[in-house]
Specification:
single chain, about 250 residues, alpha/beta, five-stranded parallel beta sheet, globular
């Protein structure tokens, strides 16, 4: 019994010594950890970080479509800037000559002018042979929506004739200027301006001429450019808005 007890103690001691030997072995000779290839991953991360660092930050304002920047008219010399541009229209554009901003051979117009006046002025326009031609008609032809097609057909006929006689002239068509709400009382058909403008835009696309849309421009103005009637623009509108905008559209 005593011998058996000694054997158990010897086995326990042997086991303890064995465990201690194994532990010591791992301490003196640690096992090598399998090497993992990380160079490609590190390179990719570095690349992405570099891109993020150099990428320009986009603000909320910058994310929106930038407004077309106006070209500067040197020394505000409108006559020199518009030497190759002829404007033909009604009283709203003829005012540019009456205000003395442009010369008589740079603006052809008529108070109360319509596309009938344009038809009568084609020979004069052809003789002038402008490089760029800007047409502005519609305010005096506003009526019921059913009348819009009569106006458009007459306008279209004139433009087709001009394109044929002036093949090298680039033609632009102005939208009808919006008016103040108070103008609807004295001129009820001004409520149809947006409808007429849609017709104008469609016509311009069909004929392959440029359409200059002033509706969003008027909405962006912080200054009131209307005369007391809420229809006719003031002098400052032409020098600060209309001519710079037309000049930019044509020269761009």
């Amino acid at each position: 019994m005593q011998i058996k007890h000694k054997r158990v103690i010897l086995l326990i001691l042997a086991a303890a010594i064995g465990l201690m030997s194994i532990r010591l072995l791992f301490t003196v000779f640690p096992q090598k950890v399998a090497k993992i290839e990380t160079s490609q991953g590190i390179s990719y991360i570095s690349e992405q970080e570099a891109k993020r660092a150099t990428r320009p930050k986009t603000t909320k304002k910058e994310s929106k479509t930038k407004k077309h920047k106006r070209l500067k008219i040197k020394n505000n010399n409108y006559k020199a800037a518009f030497k190759d541009i002829l404007i033909v229209g009604d009283s709203l554009t003829y005012a540019i000559y009456e205000y003395g901003i442009l010369d008589k051979d740079q603006v052809f117009g008529q108070v109360g002018g319509t596309t009938i006046y344009l038809d009568e002025t084609i020979k004069k326009i052809v003789k002038e042979n402008p490089k760029y031609l800007v047409l502005h008609f519609g305010e005096n032809e506003l009526g019921k929506k059913s009348y819009a097609d009569i106006y458009i057909n007459r306008y279209k006929k004139c433009i087709k004739t001009l394109k044929k006689k002036l093949p090298d002239t680039e033609i632009y068509v102005d939208s009808i200027f919006p008016v103040e709400k108070k103008a609807h009382k004295s001129e009820p058909y001004t409520k149809n301006i947006s409808y007429y403008n849609e017709k104008l835009k469609k016509m311009a696309k069909e004929l392959g001429v440029k359409y200059i849309d002033f509706t969003p421009e008027f909405k962006s103005y912080k200054k009131n450019y209307y005369d007391a009637d809420g229809i006719h623009p003031k002098y400052s509108f032409y020098t600060e808005q209309y001519l710079p905008y037309v000049y930019t559209e044509v020269m761009s």
